[in-house]
Protein 1
Amino acid sequence: MSPYDVELAHGMHVVHDGPSQAPPLLLIHGSGAAGGSWSPMVPALAARHHVIRVDLPGCGQSPPAASYDVRVVAGRLAALLDDLGLRRVAVVGHSSGGYVATALAEHRPGLVRSLVLISTGPDLDALLPQPLLLRFLLGPPFGRLLWSLRSDAWIRRGIGATTARPVDAPDEMVAGVRGITYRAFRKVMRANTAYVAERDVPDRLAALDTPLLVLFGAADPRWDPASAHRYGTVPNARIELLPDVGHVPLIEAPGAAGELLLDFTAVGADTPSPDA
């Protein structure tokens, strides 16, 4: 299914897939990625949803922003959805994209019909020692130099360091990573860390009444997979662990992850929309 209405709105590159009148589904990528990371899942999702993919500010094809604060970015997404006339949107966040999704639900609970967090660490204590390749590529003192020299092969190796087994990263995903500057990436990482350090994600979501699905790879090398169960403090949260999957179920197990997501978002999709 071909995308349509590719645009730049509120400082973000936006791509739409699927029928425009279908239930809306917003996909939010994580740090060091872009909307193309969802490409293996999009055909199945777009068969049932109006899928909205964004490149967050400073990522992929979106220009740098004055602020990468998680709440500010969530506000941009809320404004985008308002402009599109959308209500009761199912929102999905991968990795740190889950923090933006959570902030959106906090900011506009009537706008978010349901929430799916994929590989989203619940708090900073759940972060594992990072793979050596990522530490060199992303952090000081060599990060800036290596980032400037990175080739498609290096990007694929970096993605591979977060998966449980070798996976062929789609070209669209690699191109999205290439579009991110080191400066923007570091600012995004600092903003995400500040958001989680202020208050952990399960505690934030427990204060809301938003249906929640949490998906984790059982072999995630970035976040402790057992930490997924910390979301059990959120009333009626559904928690699923995907066996033999690492940090990127989007490309490691798009079929299984997509099926769980579609099953979850189908519940209540036809309920009349409240005022957002």
Protein 2
Amino acid sequence: MHKLLLMLLWLVSLPLCAEPQNAQSPPQRAKATFSGGCFWCMEKPFDPLKGVLETVSGYTGGFVENPSYEAVSSGSTGHVEALQITYDPNKISYQQLLDVYWRNIDPTNDKGQFCDKGAQYRAKIFYHDEGQKRLAEQSKAGLEKDKPFSGPVTTTIEAFKVFYPAEDYHQNYYQKNPLMYKFYRYTCGRDQRLHELWGKP
């Protein structure tokens, strides 16, 4: 009986749930949504960033539910081609995402982006909360003050409403079709214009 009591006391003293030595907390998740012309070209700059968990090409900002690529391209839906980023704010900040965003768009073009003309290709920042709104406005104001190019900053900042993922063949297009992607990017003059605006990367 004495041995049984000692055994019970020993069992009670053990930790109820031992933590694994190398356990890692799951990543925190937040979303950022930007438009900057062709969404094929917006995925590549963000995908390699540490803390970016996922990028999805899609449509946002308009009034048509579940729009198709053809409908958005026609300019009749109010939507823009956009990129939605899921990221871990403990590893990358929204401000860092904004810094990458600005250097991958033409902030002076209010008619579209690069060779893509029309409202469906305009550059916009869609904030998900008041913190993102404040940082986006501060970032834009800082750019207007210290911009390395001439011309006004026409990129708008709007409240996020709903995001519709684009068709599967648009996702990770630069990886699935690298030759077509490079051909499009070059003939659209995207990198040439970015170099004019921002200098060498």
Protein 3
Amino acid sequence: MIDLTTWNLSVPTDPTPTEVTTQQIARGYESRFFRREGANVVFWVPVTGSHTSDSVFPRSELRETTTDGEVSNWYYNQGDNELRVTMSVQQVPSKNKIIIGQIHSRSPYTGDGEPLVKLQYHYIPEQQSGRLEALVRNHPDDSASLNVLLLDNVALDQRFNYSLRVTSVGNLGIRVESSDGRANYYRKILSTTWSKQLLYFKAGAYISDNYGNDKEGAKVTVYHLNIAHR
């Protein structure tokens, strides 16, 4: 069973998104955007879904919290911080991109922030498979991210693992592994500017698409989900 005791959830309800609390999830919350299939969790986000105030795209996405439901933010120098996920992608929108995991950030002074890392599944129709890409920001105020290809030829419905990790000395590590044994690892020493940003993990389905009918969107299944702060 996936441990969801340290997450809340944003789902793209009409007319505005709903934040599902940690306590509501613990009581067994389900909807068409987030449902349980045995020990697994399925996320669905249609392109017609509502979006949060800081985006123009919809999401069905978990956000890290404490066990009492308060949002959880951390400085990387406080420990070794890691998100591990096993999942598969069943459906992509017409623009073919889904953000499936993030290390997000916020300023302790303004509350604003951009992601340090977005892990993206990018489906390539000509290949009938997708690639796993890391969108990595060098500095918190950078407007653009570096796109790092991690793994190619990941088919729809194929399981894969990923981990997003930041150590106490500022080493960023991103690891991906497909069910057929192919793996890749990306390592980067972070700029010290990130040490001043509060960080937190996100996981689920966040799409870069908001055009089409309500049958178009992204569907992903998560089989394992774990956060560690050591």
